[in-house]
């Protein structure tokens, strides 16, 4: 029988791990694949690791990797992908917001010939209105300025063939925005929609600020548009200043009195100074990315694991 590796990043999830396994056991018999669970403990500060160790003792196909500190979900994902040995790989949240009962249908689509079967939420019920608003606009912006298309509402929950996983592992960049990487590699993708679920227990680690930073990551990792905008702003303000120089020069010749206007001068200086800092900030963001990239630090450090890696 072929093997399905299930990668589950966990950060402070002591309450949800058991619920998750309980639900997964129900689908194990509905998919003609051997299941291999790879829980990645992303430096949890609660009892998650202990719960995982117990689960690994009770159920022989449960494995875990434990990081030396919190490296973030992206790092947990890549660690899981590297550790996975199955012909098929899926990535799931432990909080049951990615419904396990979709797996049989997802596998069916793979059998039909798709390389990736993704899932997307058809709605954002139970989510703050303001968060939905910004999320929608993020997808609009990123899709208009980046070559890589990202589907609104698409989750990380997806089933992939070994070929796709190998393609993703080929990308050895340190700054990883997996939503983009998954679509960058291409392949035939089928999306299954489902209604949004609330968390089974525990709390989300995302707040507005972290989501905002995450969306900036996406834009900077997958688009050079901000650099173009910065250049454009520079050219525009140059053109404006040349025009106003001409205007003041001519009006001085005609009316013969020097321009009064200390306040307007200060405003303009402040405005241009601001623009310069803004554009410098954008450039700085990209340089920061290059800096992190050239250091080639590992994405994560494993402290202990039930797998021999
Ligand atoms: N997660 C992680 N490391 C982190 C934050 C989150 O591994 O630093 C995991 C978390 O345990 C969960 C998944 O990523 O399995 C999604 O997190 P969460 O439910 O908080 O996000 P949301 O569903 O609200 O987008
Ligand atoms: Mg969640």
Q: Tally of extended strands?
A: 8
Bound molecule kinds, no repeats: uridine-5'-diphosphate, magnesium ion
Count of folded domains? 2
Count of alpha and pi helical runs: 10
Q: What's the rounded overall pLDDT mean?
A: 87
Q: Which structural category do the helix and sheet elements fall into?
A: alpha/beta
The top-level CATH class of the largest domain is Alpha Beta
Over all CA atoms, what is the radius of gyration?
Answer: 25 Å
Strand content: 15-25%
The CATH architecture term of the largest domain is Alpha-Beta Complex
Q: Main β-sheet, in a few words?
A: 8 strands, mixed
Describe the fold and architecture:
- With 309 residues, this protein is an alpha/beta fold.
- The chain has two domains: 3-207 and 298-305, Spore Coat Polysaccharide Biosynthesis Protein SpsA, Chain A (Alpha-Beta Complex); 225-295.
- The chain contains ten helices and eight strands.
- The protein has helices at 16-28, 48-58, 73-83, 103-112, 129-145, 162-170, 178-184, 208-222, 225-255, 262-295, and strands spanning 3-10, 34-41, 62-67, 88-91, 116-121, 154-161, 189-194, 302-305.
- α2 links the parallel β2 and β3.
- The relative contact order is 0.14.
- The mean pLDDT is 87.
- Magnesium ion is lined by residues 93, 95, 97, 199, 204.
């Amino acid at each position: 029988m072929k093997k399905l590796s299930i990668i589950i990043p966990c950060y402070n999830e002591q309450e949800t791990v058991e619920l998750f396994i309980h639900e997964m056991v129900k689908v194990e018999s509905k998919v003609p694949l051997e299941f291999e669970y790879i829980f990645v403990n992303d430096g949890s500060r609660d009892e998650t690791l202990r719960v995982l160790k117990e689960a690994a003792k009770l159920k022989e196909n449960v494995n875990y990797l434990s990081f030396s500190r919190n490296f973030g979900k992206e790092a947990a994902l890549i660690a899981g992908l590297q550790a996975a040995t199955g012909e098929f790989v899926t990535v799931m949240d432990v909080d049951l917001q990615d419904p396990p009962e979709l797996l049989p249908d997802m596998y069916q689509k793979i059998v039909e010939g798709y390389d990736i079967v993704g899932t997307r939420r058809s709605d954002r019920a139970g989510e703050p209105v303001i968060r939905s608003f910004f999320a929608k606009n993020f997808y609009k912006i990123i899709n208009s300025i980046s070559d890589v298309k990202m589907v609104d509402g698409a989750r990380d929950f997806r089933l992939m063939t070994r070929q796709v996983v190998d393609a993703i592992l080929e990308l050895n960049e340190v700054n990883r925005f997996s939503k983009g990487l998954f679509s960058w590699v291409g392949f035939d993708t089928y999306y299954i929609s489902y209604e949004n679920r609330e968390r089974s227990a525990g709390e989300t680690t995302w707040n507005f600020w972290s989501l905002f930073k995450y969306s900036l990551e996406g834009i900077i990792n997958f688009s050079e548009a901000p650099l173009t905008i910065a250049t454009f702003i520079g050219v525009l303000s140059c053109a404006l200043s040349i025009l106003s120089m001409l205007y003041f020069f001519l009006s001085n010749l005609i009316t013969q009195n020097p321009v009064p206007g200390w306040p307007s001068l200060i405003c303009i200086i402040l405005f241009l100074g601001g623009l310069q800092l803004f554009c410098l900030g954008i450039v700085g963001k990209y340089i920061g990315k290059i800096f992190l990239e050239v250091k080639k630090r590992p994405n994560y450090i494993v402290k202990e694991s039930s797998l021999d890696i």
